[in-house]
Design a protein that fits this description.
The complex is a heterodimer. Chain A is mainly alpha-helical. Helix content of chain A is 82%, strand content 0%. In chain B, the strands form 3 sheets. A 6-stranded mixed sheet of chain B has the order 6-7-8-3-9-10, with helices on both faces. In chain B, strands 2-1-4-5 form a 4-stranded antiparallel sheet, with helices on one face. A 4-stranded antiparallel sheet of chain B has the order 12-13-11-14, with helices on both faces. Classes of the chains: A mainly alpha, B alpha/beta.
Amino acid sequence: MWGLDFSSVDWNEIGVATLDTLKMLGASAVFTFILGLPIGIVLFMASRSTTGWVRAAYAVISFIVNILRSVPFIILIVALIPVTKAIVGVTFGVLGTIPPLVIAAAPFFARLVETSLREVDRGVIEAAHSMGASTWQVITRVLLPEARPGLLAGITITVVTLVSYTAMSGMVGGGGLGDLAIRYGYYRYESTVMIISVIFMIVLVQLLQMAGDRLVRHFTRK
Amino acid sequence: MIELKQLTKRYGQGAKATEALSGLNLSIHKGEIFGVIGHSGAGKSTLIRCMNLLERPTSGEVWVGGVNLTGLSKQRLQNERRKIGMIFQHFNLLSSATVYDNIAFPLRLARKGKAEVEAKVNELLALVGLEAHRNKYPAQLSGGQKQRVGIARALASDPQVLLCDEATSALDPQTTDSILKLLLDINQRFNLTIVLITHEMHVIQSICDRVAVIHQGGIVEEGAVTDVFLKPQHPVTKDFVRGEQSQGEPLELAVQASGTGSPQAVKITFLGSKTYESILSRTVRETGADFAILQGTISTIKDTPYGQLIVRFEGGREQIDATLAKLSEQGLDVEVMN
């Protein structure tokens, strides 16, 4: 079919690569969330402040976030090699890919968090203040629950972005489906494996997006 | 209960600064329903938001229940705010929480136990008549129901004061009346002090005991609603009162149509039980004067009946003077208009 030869495909290798991709995705998504959520909250709270030093801190954090978001991921991986080595000890394979993935995706996710917190009705925040809520209570009991659909949509977008990032990391020996596609398709002209890898990634993105949309719908009350 | 001293609020700095409140003083007593009325931009919203320091005044003091809020630490202020309930024009309910959870919200902020929360919320649901809607989300409720949730939530922490920021302005007339009735009921049942701001004289007339008229950041008139409503002094107040009373043709036209020759258009104000007595007809029978009613209102201010008639008397000079004197003697307020 279309000149593709499925008999020579090593399905075992594809299975391992799929698993690697899922591992990278899972681990980097968790750390991106853990890192990006607080940064997003800090960005949001600082952007509303009228205190001088808080506004200065906002400008600094915002600047760093923008830098990390504007550097192409492929360059970021290379630039972060010493950092990656310091954190996980290796710079290639599944483990070596996770730190650059997180460092690239966390600022992106933080911005999405900031944006969805901005969508929360100011009046509700004010009402909570009028009832004597502390800043921490406003964050945990008002902002996060009220922004939940937006946050879930942000997580979905981030994870889907991470799928394409894991593929890019294949260029520098990152492992996973992207690595497979590049090694076979690009270097060895074996398009069959490349096409299978790409199809697997398309299916993965579709499933993630569907799951995300479903969660968003489930938690939307408006 | 609430004491505002030399309250000033300035927005912006330097030449561009605008003053929303300028050295305003106000004193609100325990257990009364106090209304603040003003046009938009008069500073009334800033005023009520200063009462729980949602808006921090530039200078001046805010005393609530004997505590100077302006001097408190953040932590102490949070504690004091739990004793001040507030409801809003746009309700400001948590859209992600059910009716039950919205009402429970302030109790959970104060870390009350589960059983206590449950008991209190059930009691409040009954008070505002929303037992059947406890598991609904705000988006599934009507405006009036949302405000009832807002009221229940504001009452959950047993406040000493309830602040109402244009609480009925987003509601239709019938719903407004039912919410006002609920507020009056709460005021009487719990002796709760209520402060409300509004731009509708109707709201003031329905439930307030005292009223202050705010204009350009200051109070221009203040007093019992019956006094302010029936004998407004300041032009802004007169504006509000006229807006509420003149249904139908404007007074000026009526006076003109009655003939320029006769000068005696007289405004007679009845208050309390006198409203329903036959004072006017008895008096003219005695003096022999005749009268034509040019305009009239018989209504109530809160629970006090009142009547205000504009009449033109006919007859001899002495007859008319005698009539006016006799009406005054019997406790009616008589004002000759020009």
